[in-house]
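Re: the 86-residue chain
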Amino acid sequence: MHVLLVEDNPVNLRLASRMLQKQGHTVREANNGLDALGVLACESFDVILMDIQMTKMDGLAKPINKTELRHVLAKLNPNPQQPAAV
């Protein structure tokens, strides 16, 4: 599976990423929910694993639909011809 792993603690991020990779998954990492949105603008994932408590948009943030996601991404990247920087 292609996994987006979102975790703000570098030790936990590294540990979880290695565990997933050992199980044969490909892992893309993000340090917080806002970074994850930028990654989602460029890639698709089978699953998103997200820390439940982070400083910038954690796993308890309100789930958003595709229209809201596009709006947030437009704010992060006003030039849609280039991928959002993460």
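The chain has a mean pLDDT of 80.
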